[in-house]
UniProtKB/TrEMBL annotation:
Residues 187-209 form the Ice-binding protein C-terminal domain. NCBIfam families: PEP_CTERM. Keywords: Signal. This is PEP-CTERM sorting domain-containing protein. Residues 1-18 form the signal peptide. Pfam families: PEP-CTERM (PF07589). It comes from Alicycliphilus denitrificans.
Length: 221
């Protein structure tokens, strides 16, 4: 398995110490494609781990580019109802990069309060970002079953926020990545700092280190 670099998008103005970390371990394989001109969105369906740790602080997926083009993507969390995304709860800023090695892209949500027992989907999407240049990535898979399963939306540029995704409705396949949850009582305000700056890949050297590198880019609050 290739060493995984980590690109951490600090899109949060609130931080917390994770109390529960759910991990779907990367198995070295991926599903494709994500991006222009084909499948618009891939997501993992989940619920909160328990009735106490109901704040989703961050989530990640693992990406690798399929061609030399720079991909543009964003992340989101929405309710999951009858095989499709419902109400949008969180949308990240757009990030871009050419992921020459498998790269774990970590998204901070700012502390997203969720309802125990409700199903949600955490996704990466290229919806609305098609520009006429094909830019495709594959998304890492896992053999674990710690979340409810993978789904995808092949709307080819359309919004992921509609009631019926057309692929693998929370099926037994799992997307590799992590989800960090905390108790609402553990939320700790963080001071504002620099504006969110250019988001892209970590350097190739960092990607080859034995220990995954992490880079945090603070966001203006």
């Amino acid at each position: 398995m290739k060493t995984i670099a980590a690109l951490v998008l600090a899109l949060a103005s609130v931080g917390a110490q994770a109390d529960v970390v759910i991990t779907n371990t990367f198995n070295g394989t991926g599903i494709q494609p994500l991006g222009e001109p084909d499948t618009t969105t891939y997501g993992e369906v989940f619920t909160t781990p328990d009735a106490i740790n109901t704040v989703l602080d961050s989530f990640s997926l693992i990406l690798q580019s399929l061609n030399a083009s720079t991909s543009q993507l964003y992340a989101g969390v929405a309710t999951w109802v009858n095989g499709g995304a419902g109400t949008s709860l969180f949308t990240s800023s757009v990030f871009s990069g050419n992921f020459t090695d498998w790269t774990e892209v970590v998204i901070g949500t700012g502390g997203l309060s969720l309802t125990p027992g409700q199903q949600y989907v955490a996704f990466f999407s290229a919806s609305g970002l098609f520009d006429g240049s094909n830019a495709l990535v594959q998304v890492g898979l896992s053999d674990d079953a710690n979340t409810l399963g993978m789904s995808w939306d092949n709307a080819n540029g359309g919004s992921p926020l509609h009631p019926n995704w057309n692929g693998c409705q929370a099926c037994s396949y799992q997307l590799a990545g992590t989800m960090e949850f905390s108790n609402p009582g553990n939320q700790v305000p963080e001071p504002g700092s620099m504006a969110l700056l250019g988001l892209g890949l970590l350097g190739a050297a960092a990607a080859r280190r034995h220990s995954p590198a992490k880079a945090r880019v603070p966001e203006q609050v």
